[in-house]
Amino acid sequence: MDKIILNNLQFYGFHGLLPEENKLGQRFNVDLELISDLKKPGETDNMNDSIHYGQVYETVQEIVEGEAKNLIEAVADSIAAKLLASFDLLHACRVKVIKPDPPIPGHYESVAVEIYREKSK
Predict the structure, then answer these.
(1) Model pTM?
(2) Domains of the chain (ranges plus CATH)?
(3) Residues noted as catalytic
(4) d(CA 88, CA 36)
(5) 34-92 pLDDT, tens per residue?
(6) Which residues form the Dihydroneopterin aldolase/epimerase domain (predicted)?
């Protein structure tokens, strides 16, 4: 199956376990792989035959910049569920939510979760 890939979508949200995270917020990055058959849009060159990634971005933005969640696992799951429900041509998706600056001591680039979900048949 083919993929539409969106890399490093950037948002500001208020997810986390600590009160400071919910009050001050922080950056979140999202990578997506949208699994869909792209043969028809490749042949027709018609947006109606594909998944509009501008609309995908807006859907993800709504979730990441919306209601605060404790875990980025829940953020990723909400993104996957909403995408699968909103886009008929989407068969499955891989969602990676990256937290570049979690409030934990140590030296690292980021923490992240990645999930894969498929549409129910």
Answers:
(1) 0.95
(2) 2-118 (3.30.1130.10)
(3) 99
(4) 10
(5) 999 999 999 999 999 999 999 999 999 999 999 999 999 999 999 999 999 999 999 99
(6) 4-117
